[in-house]
Amino acid sequence: MKRATTSTIDEASWLRLDRAPGETLRAALGRTIREAIHEGSLRPGVRLPSSRGLAAELGVSRGVTSDVYAQLSAQGYIVVGDRSAPVVADVEVAGATGRVAAGVQPKPPEIDLSTWAPDTTLFPTRDWLNAVTRTLRGLPSRSLDYGDPRGEAALRVTLSGHLGRTRGVIADPERIVIVQGARQATDILFRILARRGERRIATEDPSQTIPRDQMRVYGIEPIGCPIDDHGVAVPAGLEAAALIVTPAHQFPTGVVMSGERRREVLAWARRRDGYVIEDDYDAEFRYDREPVRAIQGLDPERVAYIGTVAKTFAPAFRIGWLAVPEALADEAASTKRLMDSCSPRVDQLALARMMESGDWDRHIRRARAVYRARRDRVTEALARHLPGLEVSGVTAGLHVTLRFPPGVDDQAVAASARALGVEVLPLSNFAVEPAATGGLLIGYGHTHVSAIDRAVRRVARAVAANTG
Amino acid sequence: MKRATTSTIDEASWLRLDRAPGETLRAALGRTIREAIHEGSLRPGVRLPSSRGLAAELGVSRGVTSDVYAQLSAQGYIVVGDRSAPVVADVEVAGATGRVAAGVQPKPPEIDLSTWAPDTTLFPTRDWLNAVTRTLRGLPSRSLDYGDPRGEAALRVTLSGHLGRTRGVIADPERIVIVQGARQATDILFRILARRGERRIATEDPSQTIPRDQMRVYGIEPIGCPIDDHGVAVPAGLEAAALIVTPAHQFPTGVVMSGERRREVLAWARRRDGYVIEDDYDAEFRYDREPVRAIQGLDPERVAYIGTVAKTFAPAFRIGWLAVPEALADEAASTKRLMDSCSPRVDQLALARMMESGDWDRHIRRARAVYRARRDRVTEALARHLPGLEVSGVTAGLHVTLRFPPGVDDQAVAASARALGVEVLPLSNFAVEPAATGGLLIGYGHTHVSAIDRAVRRVARAVAANTG
């Protein structure tokens, strides 16, 4: 290992391949370098080893490393000169197109532990391109016209089977509406309930803020229901048209809803003649035991079930699904029709094809292995650097939640972490009612395994700076 | 010309190629046969000539005809046996996937003169696939994450230039929001205006019904403003937050808004401190003279401009754009964000690429030539079979409007036409207030040029059955 200039990287410190099962060496190497560029451990201007040097370092053939460099260069991640070693490109600048890009996207933090999105470098570009190509080549021209507001029959049939097998969801294709992500699913449901004169909808506390903002558009008041270690507790005498829950991996605490709580939630819905809205937002990533099945399967006439490809595939495609009780099916379709006619059709057909081919399941297994490795690294790092604090939500999803004792201001800790180059979300961002205790969401969707220990060390410094 | 069996077609009567400029013979032949299958002049089970017979008939090489047959067979339009001549497939059955398809789509009429959609057989599959492939291959992984609610910067920059050149629209990329078609654009605007406490929005009478249904969701009352030969007339003392107009080709009458009316509409908006909502829904297809430019360019701070790819490209992609006045820009973006986060990103990038490459303009020119030929055939046929009736809207768009004298019930005429196998929409479907006179929309988006005369003849029979 030599350092030719101060801006040349130390190979040993950055290049840890977490090669997923079935992933080729080329793919893993390319992904690792892209990730390192995204999460900031390889900064613009840094000089990489030559393809020969990297090959020697890794003990692989030079063909592998030069192929990967050529691909990264084509993608704009690195700049390869005629004679000189490759240099990390300024990706923000490379991605800008004309007048608008500057100022649109905030500058990314050095290390991003915010939790919203999965690792898009895992996206199976080749499989997807293959599915899109086959779909377009064989497409009857009528499939380019306006479609069924509920979405493509092929995808709804495929999903009906897939959700039944993987999540225990009981939903005829007739009950499924393809939507533009979970956000449109809740927008549809709130609109329907508002039109029925409903003015209150309950939500877990803490929980995502977007649904609450969406409710208010329709004059609906959000009611918080507290989360404890067993999931949401339905308050006595709760009066609301629906209760939104995330049973598989509560957002943001990561708690798995207990069987008893599931029964209580459904009993409340039957008593009230209300609905449970189940956001199954990252149920596909469960690491240590069999996935907890969706609550929808326990009472399909009381539960509206929401799922998306945002975590499993990529948020950019905006594909989600809403499986509704019979009593809401017609209105869900007509509401979707009034909002935007139908979701884009070709991507739906390509997704159905990818699911039917097995490429989908293979992709999920591969991504799950990558995330499991990161999850393990996160829990190890937290145990090492923050041994005194409680951690929840480790069994599933793309984040764990660090809990603070009373008196620690999680906003202040997050601000300290940000000053240290680590973006991390405070738990109190998601509170409905101000909570006695705070915490941090440690998301690993965007964070390469090699950066995790360093990131958690900085979080520990931020915690130390704000306690006793 | 021989008829081998009663189900063998008479080649001379169906095969009229309206080959567009730049279209290959193979492409034109394939499209013509697909169109004939869609519009019903080639029905399921009909036996086609052999590839050798068709080649002889057309005076082309057999390679052309057998290639086209092979492609049609791969697409499910025809069934090619080992020795026998090809047979038209049952396309509805071929498109069905499992349990849901039956009953979802209504059986298509024999000839479809309804006006909503363009001819999807003109879709440039190869160009689009090329654009998607290049986009995905070079895609930085961050483009697979959640995006700017306003849409991709690359597409907004491209559109800003394109709309300026082709439509006279003055809109910075910062003012453009990419939406899921025109329907979502109006939904966004109505939501913003409702939140400002507005309770009335004016619309042309007659006009599309969907925006009126959308308004009512937000408690907004639609106010009709009558259309005459110069476009919409603003009633004295009109009190409304906005006026929705279709100046380039009024829907449904086809009237082009006069310069004086444009000035009146804008003067009203300034006086009221209201907005003009311009739906430029099929302005790209103008046949006889230079396109009338968008009213938005006359006063960008008073006009919210809406365009889509539904007519030019295909409705299935659900891509549209909304260019808003400065005063609405932030709220339009935040409303889009709350509805569905952002529109699907890869298709936006592919569209920008296609527009930049020139493939887009080439496609529009080609489609325009096909539609112009149909428009000519429609006006000829109406002059021949219904010489006494007024026709409006012939200069642009994908339909013309046939006007009835007082006393003719257009619903009854449409029902008679339907009984004769022709689907055609009565003008009164679009009335805000009941009108003294009715008419029919004669749409040619879905109708092959060879079927037009036959269709209009049947419409004339339907008119005759309901007059004097």
Structure summary:
Chain A is an alpha/beta fold.
Write the layout of secondary structure elements.
The structure is a homodimer of 468-residue chains.
Chain A: H1 11-14, H2 25-39, H3 51-58, H4 62-74, E1 78-79, E2 87-88, H5 91-95, E3 111-112, H6 125-137, H7 153-167, E4 176-179, H8 181-195, E5 200-205, H9 210-217, E6 221-228, E7 231-232, E8 242-245, H10 259-272, E9 275-279, E10 303-308, E11 320-323, H11 326-340, H12 345-357, H13 359-385, E12 390-392, E13 399-403, H14 410-419, E14 422-423, E15 425-426, E16 439-443, H15 449-465
Helix pairs in contact in A: 2-4, 3-4, 6-12, 7-12, 8-9, 8-11, 13-15, 14-15
Structure overview:
The structure is a homodimer of 468-residue chains. The first copy, chain A, contains 15 helices and 16 strands. Chain A has 468 residues and is of the alpha/beta class. In chain A, strands 4-11-10-9-8-5-6-7 form an eight-stranded mixed β-sheet, with helices on both faces. A four-stranded antiparallel β-sheet of chain A has the order 12-13-16-15, with helices on one face. In chain A, strands 1-2 form a two-stranded antiparallel ribbon. The longest helix of chain A has 27 residues, at 359-385. Chains A and B meet through helix 5, helix 6, helix 7, helix 8 and helix 9 of A and helix 5, helix 6, helix 7, helix 8 and helix 9 of B.
